[in-house]
Design goal:
heterodimer; A: 213 residues; mainly alpha; 9 helices; 84% helix; 0% strand; B: 228 residues; two-stranded antiparallel sheet
Chain lengths: 213, 228
């Protein structure tokens, strides 16, 4: 078990270190989420209520995550490193878990900019909304890193990834928006937790089949 | 194989006869609905088609699971055919649902109809399945990636259903409740005949489509063998 966790930590650390050196994903995500929020200001009519803004926040978060996920397997693919990782003497699901943790780190970093910007630009965020963001981000990254590994095996992967990912993200958006605007956010948070558990287990079990030749 | 499958042509005729019987029982046997009138007749088509679509998606996922569990190559086409038919019946569900919505609520589309929204989500999901399938090189990897995605589909059905229910009020007419179907005997008979006919029709289509896809794959292999 501890060997497994060591593998996962090493893989996640590799992604974070690559990002620190090359800086080709995170700055793009930060800039994208800020520009999206500015675009939303002009997309919302002046007297629209806060509820519409909460909805758009979730659109911004999902698309920012997509931007990060699209680049998630680029390094592995370009250098042919995925074959090496698959051949390495560790459980293959560790590759998925490491990638999920790394993409989650990028997404959380983008949210650390996006959420304060949202509060300044649009509307306050409650504790339940923040909990919703955390739970939904976990779901986005677990499912997203699996789906983007699928897309990485295909032609036209940049086009394919949103098509594969968005239908799976709809329940997350429902849960996230519900947690942000509902009077009783408990149900929505529980639903997000359920989604995370179901799809994390599925992705964890299925990843091996996606990467092996 | 020890048990021979019934011949396809005979099954096709049985399915056609059942569809005709279903049409007769829908229009002649089942009484007109007191509340919705003639437009309620589409219920006997819409609901069986929706249930068949679920069954096809389930079949596709089951075959996908078998593929991953046993690495049996033949399950790939079976799973693909299941998903293919499920998508066709899913589109039919959307169309019949839209017609019913227009007849009884006066609008072609309503977001408060959970079943319709669920089928829209599933439609998008399974269209992406085809995109994925056609953009990966044929081979064991494509088989496995498609299988994993098809399996995700069956997990998405209950999760999405719950999500859509959370997002909405529940106004779709609930016919089956805990007290049993709120239908007269004749109505229930017509519904069952219609359901049986559409399920059998789907099975026949599945066999035909599978045979076609297998022939196609064999032909391609032969052509490659001859060409090289």
């Amino acid at each position: 078990m501890s060997a497994y966790l060591t593998d996962v930590a090493a893989l996640a650390r590799k992604d974070l270190r690559l990002e620190l050196r090359a800086r080709d994903t995170l700055p793009a995500m930060l800039l994208f989420v800020l520009s999206t929020l500015v675009v939303f200001h002009f997309a919302l009519p002046a007297d629209t209520g806060d509820d519409a803004a909460y909805g758009l926040l979730w659109v911004a978060l999902v698309f920012t995550a997509l931007l990060g996920l699209a680049r998630a397997w680029v390094a592995e693919r370009e250098a042919g490193a995925l074959d090496g990782l698959v051949l390495a003497p560790s459980d293959r699901s560790a590759i998925w878990l490491g990638k999920s943790i790394a993409t989650l780190a990028f997404l959380v970093a983008a949210e650390l900019v996006a959420l304060p910007a949202f509060v300044i630009f649009f509307a306050p965020l409650g504790l339940a909304a923040l909990a919703g963001v955390v739970l939904a981000s976990i779901g986005i990254c677990t499912v997203g890193s699996l789906v983007s590994a699928m897309a990485a095996a295909a032609r036209g992967r940049e086009v394919l990834l949103p098509l594969l990912f968005l239908p799976l993200a709809i329940p997350l958006v429902v849960g996230g928006v519900g947690a942000s605007i509902s009077e009783e956010p408990g149900t929505y948070l529980a639903f997000l937790g359920l989604y995370d558990a179901v799809f994390a287990i599925l992705s964890w079990a299925a990843f091996e089949y996606v990467v092996t030749e | 194989m020890s048990i021979a499958k019934p011949p396809l042509t005979a099954l096709g005729w049985v399915a056609a006869a059942l569809v005709a019987l279903a049409a007769v029982s829908i229009f002649a046997v089942a009484p007109e609905d007191a509340d919705q009138g003639f437009s309620q007749k589409i219920f006997y088509v819409h609901v069986p088609i929706a249930l068949t679509a679920y069954a096809c998606f389930g079949l596709g996922a089951w075959k996908a699971y078998r593929l991953l569990a046993t690495r049996g190559e033949r399950y790939d086409l079976e799973s693909y055919t299941g998903v293919h038919l499920g998508t066709i019946f899913g589109i039919l569900t959307l169309v019949t649902g839209a017609i019913w919505a227009k007849a009884s609520w006066g609008v072609w589309w309503t977001w408060s109809s959970n079943q319709l929204v669920l089928f829209l989500v599933l439609f998008l999901f399974y269209c992406a399945y085809f995109m994925l399938r056609f953009s990966v090189e044929p081979g064991p990897r494509r088989e496995r990636i498609s299988a994993v995605y098809a399996l995700f589909g069956v997990a998405l059905i209950p999760v999405s259903f719950f999500a859509i229910r959370l997002a909405n009020d529940f106004i779709h007419p609930t016919v089956f409740t805990r007290e049993g179907p709120q239908m007269t005997g004749e109505m229930f008979f017509a519904f069952c005949v219609s359901w049986a006919s559409i399920t059998l029709l789907a099975y026949v289509m599945y066999r035909v489509e599978l045979a076609g896809k297998r022939t196609d794959a064999n032909l391609r292999e032969l052509r490659e063998a001859l060409g090289s």
